[in-house]
């Protein structure tokens, strides 16, 4: 896969791949983000998406993603260049201390098992838009497909932990991964 950083919006680069672009969120993304986020299958595999999805949740999420003082950069997986929808999923880098970030992502069910998540993570890692020394990620242990995405993109398993899932209203066992960038 090839990629190019083709521009910036709000100090956040657009990352172009052959198949799709990773671009900053915009208000017009709210409808598709809400449609996918309201799907229990998506929400249950994230820490932060509640199910059922309360009114205003998506708008607040997009507003935070577009804020100049945000702690996380969020990109839409935009497939319009290949005839796909403007949002097929999202991927984010949350800033951490010591020049590190945490990768998080979800993909709409219509695009599961298409390689989209692997391509998006690989593009983000290759672009390294925050110039990180290290990236981390964690996945729920009942989501081995997401674990394969990370290992296929050069992340190494470093241990088990647990995280709270809003949709599940409880702690869920996780696998944690690291990717040294230098």
Contiguous uncertain segments of 5+ residues = 1-9
- What is the strand content? 35-45%
What's the pLDDT, averaged over the residues?
94
Shape estimate = globular
Biggest beta-sheet profile = 9 strands, mixed
Counting DSSP H or I runs of 4 or more residues, the number of helices is 5
Q: List the domain count as a whole number.
A: 1
CATH topology: Aminopeptidase
Q: N-to-C terminal Cα separation, in Å?
A: 21 Å
Q: Please provide the ordered H/E string of secondary-structure elements.
A: EEEHHHEEEHEHEE
Strand order of the largest sheet: 1-2-3-4-5-6-7-9-8
The Rg value, from CA coordinates, equals 15 Å
| CATH hierarchy: architecture | 3-Layer(aba) Sandwich
CATH superfamily: Gcn5-related N-acetyltransferase (GNAT)
Q: Please report the first level of CATH classification, the CATH class.
A: Alpha Beta
């Amino acid at each position: 896969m090839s990629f190019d950083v083709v521009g910036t919006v709000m100090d956040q680069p657009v990352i172009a791949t052959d198949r799709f672009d990773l671009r900053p969120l915009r208000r017009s993304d709210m409808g598709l983000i809400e449609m996918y986020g309201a799907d229990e299958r998506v929400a249950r595999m994230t820490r932060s998406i509640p199910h059922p999805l309360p009114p205003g949740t998506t708008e607040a999420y997009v507003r935070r993603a577009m804020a100049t003082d945000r702690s996380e950069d969020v990109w839409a997986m935009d497939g319009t260049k290949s005839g796909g929808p403007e949002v097929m999923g999202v991927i984010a880098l949350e800033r951490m201390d010591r020049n590190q970030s945490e990768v998080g992502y979800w993909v709409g069910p219509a695009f599961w098992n298409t390689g989209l998540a692997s391509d998006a993570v690989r593009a983000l890692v290759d672009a390294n838009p925050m110039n990180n020394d290290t990236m981390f990620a964690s996945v729920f242990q009942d989501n081995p497909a997401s674990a394969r995405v990370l290992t296929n993109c050069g992340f190494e398993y470093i241990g088990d932990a647990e995280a709270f899932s809003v949709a599940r209203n409880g702690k869920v066992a996780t696998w944690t991964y690291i990717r040294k960038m230098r």
